[in-house]
């Protein structure tokens, strides 16, 4: 006799399998800088090249947004641009403090890169 799994377990497994695979990122480029406080958060705080922005997502680890909210300082500025992920055009952001995100439609993945300080120098 087979044992049935509770529905909440099946849902949890399906949610955790929707991780971002950075090897499927293409055509990433920077097209914008935004700051809510130009006095405290300037372009130089997150001045990355296109290849450095790509490297950020290659090195970063995916996390739940609560990890960023609870354990990282979220800066009032970011660089942003488009990318293509599995043939879908998406948008991305990278903030000072080595946090970032990628949004495709109604799905957003959040990232931290504790080993990316060298990109900001």
Describe the structure.
Helices cover 22% and strands 31% of the residues. The protein has 121 residues and is α+β, with helices and mostly antiparallel strands. Strands 1, 2, 3, 4, 5, 6 and 7 form a 7-stranded antiparallel β-sheet that branches. Strand 4 (77-85) and strand 5 form a beta hairpin. The longest helix has 10 residues, at 7-16. The termini are far apart. Mean pLDDT is 86; it is low at 1-17.
What is the number of E strands? Answer: 7
Count of helical stretches: 3
Task: Give the N-to-C terminal Cα separation.
Answer: 61 Å
Mean pLDDT: 86
pLDDT below 50 for ≥5 consecutive residues: which ranges?
A: 1-17
**How large, in whole angstroms, is the Cα Rg?**
16 Å
Task: Using the alpha-carbon principal axes, give the shape.
Answer: globular
Strand proportion = 25-35%
Query: What is the H-and-E element order?
Result: HEEHEHEEEE
Q: Look at the helices and sheets and give the structural class.
A: alpha+beta
Helix proportion of residues, in percent? 10-25%
Q: How would a textbook summarize the main sheet?
A: 7 strands, antiparallel
Main features:
alpha+beta, 3 helices, 7 strands, globular, 31% strand, 7-stranded antiparallel sheet, disordered N terminus, 121 residues
SSE topology sketch:
Elements: H1 7-16, E1 25-26, E2 32-35, H2 50-59, E3 61-63, H3 65-71, E4 77-85, E5 88-95, E6 99-104, E7 107-112
Antiparallel strand pairs: 1-4, 2-4, 3-7, 4-5, 5-6, 6-7
Describe this structure in a few short sentences.
The chain has 121 residues and is an alpha+beta fold. The protein has 3 helices and 7 strands; from the N terminus they run αββαβαββββ.
